[in-house]
Amino acid sequence: MAYQPFDLTGKVALITGGNGGIGLGFGEAIAAAGGDVCIWGRKSGKNDEALEKIRAAGPSGTHSALVCDVADEADVDKCFAETLEKHGRVDGCFANAGVSARGNAFTDMTIKEWRHVMSVNMEGCFFTFRAATRHMVERSKNGDPFGRLVGTASLAALSGPARNEHYAASKGGLVSMMNALAVEFARHGVTANSILPGWIETEMTEAAFADPRFSGNVMPRMPMRRWGKPEDFGGIAVYIMSEASSFHTAESFLIDGGYWVF
Fold first, then answer.
1. CA 180, 23, 67 angle in degrees (round to 5)?
2. Domain range summary for the chain, segments of one domain joined by +
3. N or C terminus of the chain: which is more exposed, having fewer CB within 10 Å?
4. What is 32-62 written as a DSSP string?
């Protein structure tokens, strides 16, 4: 018999950027554990493809997908209301949508580039978590104290990614936001944790991994001798969504194959 606290039957997870990469890895695992999943993404076709995979992983659940731009405050509020209409509740909110814009030297970085990254990686998380906490606090006051807030940060929150200061700042800020949310909403049965991926094979990292110079420099420093994959994040998603993690909050889960310590 499976460990019962990991049974997510009746739980609903909202995952922004859930139509690919790590977000899809979250969604497939949660669905396989019995949970219902709603993914948000900006591309309807990609959403549909991801939804098919989630339904295959958890055929007994009720899953959905919505087109949403998390950098748009009104769009986030509208889509959260639609998510509640479809599912009735949101137990776990994974703010996973993000962008990167590595390239220009910091001395040449424009305010437009800086604000583009911040609008998605910081403001998008703010809009999403604000909607989620309003819902979770209301449920708590009605006798249903439970909630999971998860922010997908990055190893860049700890390291020094040159020419990517805007991305690093956004991810470091997200970790701090999660710690503050953990303190403010603990009384409502809500936990808040960060996930810090290392070098993971996703669309965002395709260009880097295709560069022989990059791979030749980085792979020798990877103790696991492989890049991470979206499915490497399924277990942590199920754990956080489950009752087993009810006393585990304000954590930064570093999932990088040992790269940081080596």
1. 95
2. 4-255
3. N
4. HTT-EEEEEES-HHHHHHHHHHHHHH-TTS-
